[in-house]
Protein 1
Amino acid sequence: MRRAALVLALACIVTGCSYKESFPYKGDSLVNFKTDSLYFSFGELPFSVTDTTLLIGVEIIGSPAGHERIFNIALDNSRTTARLHEHYDEPRMEGRIPSGASAGTVALTIHRLSLQSDSVFTVVLDMLPGEDFRLGAVEDRSVAVSFTNRLDLPEWWPMLSKWLGEYNPRKYQKFIELWGGAITRKDINEMKYTILRTFKKVKEYFGEHPEFGVTFPDVDWPV
């Protein structure tokens, strides 16, 4: 038995292996975000989708515990470009890892209608040490959550600009909501008047909701 143990020890010296690799981690529990950055675009989502809640993953290094544990986060104002309450709601600064679990989430609610169509906004959260956890890897102690309402001008827009007017992503997003998805130049060539009928409904909608500031040219429509 001693001879076998000696052979194993010598083998580890030669190969650089470690006895610790064969046993579960038993040190202090560490906590990290699962990633250092997230990106979300309302983009081609229907206009009716005004808010969304993103779930930011949190994970621990160490064994699950038989009781609930708490982790703490803080808002990094120096790197956050989004405006609180206008673009997003402040997340809970105290999160929980359930009993028996090795992961949790931070919920961040963002608001679409106040996002300018050409801007990307960012909320940066920092993980803090606490009674239940120390901090894990340096690169995942913070997470930058970026979001936008950007929807680039489609290349077919000039084909219908006589009726649609100046491009506004809200026009296209409302169309996507009514039509069921984005369209292409080929769709315009094959279904121009059907598409215009849907855009006419978009025009009527924004005519009934001037608070959005979306306007169309005052011209006759062929549908």
Note: The chain is about 25% helix and 25% strand.
Protein 2
Amino acid sequence: VDGVDYGYEGLPEEVPAGRVGLRFTNATEHDEPHELVLMRRNEGVTEPIDELLALPEEEAMTKVQMAGVVFADQPGQEVAAMLDLEPGSYIAICFIPIGGGEEGAPHFTGGMVAEFEVR
């Protein structure tokens, strides 16, 4: 999966359940760090991603489970992870502020958020 400014390229729509190898490349054109935070929706959670992101953080975190994180802070950097993914609906998202500083809107507000299924 490539993290671009601001989105994910190469993220499949469906992934097989079980142990999955993930290679994440920071394909920034603006010297931005990127991350891929994976969250699995809890059973019965059907709200669209934009509604989940509009919730207060504490409430949103009751609707998802963390499933993994990969971080590539340098342009061209590749990182790899092995993840054990259970069947369900997943969200890939980047929370890093635009511009790479400590303040500012997160990358997901620019479109760096995607959904996929694990079966």
Note: The chain is about 10% helix and 45% strand.
Protein 3
Amino acid sequence: MKSLCAAAMAALLFGPAAVAQDQAADNTAIVKEKVRADKKLLVAANMGLSEQEAAAFWPVYDAYQKELDVLNGRTRDLIKRYADAFNAGAGTVSDETAKSLLDEALAIDAAELDVRRSYVPKFGKVLPSAKVARYYQIEQKIRSALKADLSAGIPLVQ
């Protein structure tokens, strides 16, 4: 898993707010799709799925990723809102803006937990519990690495 380039994954999974602004949009879409495919290969390489398990797992995985993409979009929008406020305030944001941003960040975290919880029984219908737990470990490691890399480039609120 260490072979993943966390910076590229964060930029591509969390969208344009994390991508250099002068990069062509179609190149971003192509690279984003490549990163998603690489993530899927990473998951496949670490899951040890039988053919039967794989046939049942991947549709649930794809649906789960779509729901996570919605949250990634919210995160991208939140980062853009923060960047706009930070830049407009010469490195500071108002208390009102800070509260609004914090509320949205916590709402995104809560929504992600809700999605994760809602998919446990869905994955449990197609995989044994040990493999569901393994998948959640893999997914969490990937998302944690992405979030850590992404947050490293975001200045603290002043």
Note: The chain has a mean pLDDT of 84.
Protein 4
Amino acid sequence: MVKIDSVQIIRTTSNNADFAQLIAALDDDLYQRNGDAQLKYRPYNKVDTIKHVVLVYVDSRPVGCGAFKKFDEDSVEIKRMFVYPEMRGKRLAARILQELENWAVEEGYNKAVLETGLKQTEAIRLYTIAGYYLTENYGQYIGMEESICYRKKLK
């Protein structure tokens, strides 16, 4: 079991080098779970201009991330949620998600949407516990059988 002495959560952008490192690990994780089927999601996971990124550090080491981007006038889309496997089960992803939701509300948004994969059971559990509910697949995820989408009212 990994012992945690300190946790720090920061807000940044997609230009952050630690975010790039975490995204590479996320993409590897998704490819291991989904194989070549993951390749069709690449065009939707671009992070070069995301202005709202949250990173979590444990004992000064980056171990998790998440982001959001504008979905419509009232909503954000939660993107690129990830925590290293050895750090899961410590509520770090829940803290990242809460920080993203708080930031979205501060920016004037009152709803969130997100997509995850059927094989990402940890994510499904996280979003369900956090109050997200299943909704129809939206946008580019319509017709993608491996995808499930969620929605939540933030305020």
Note: The chain has three helices and seven strands.
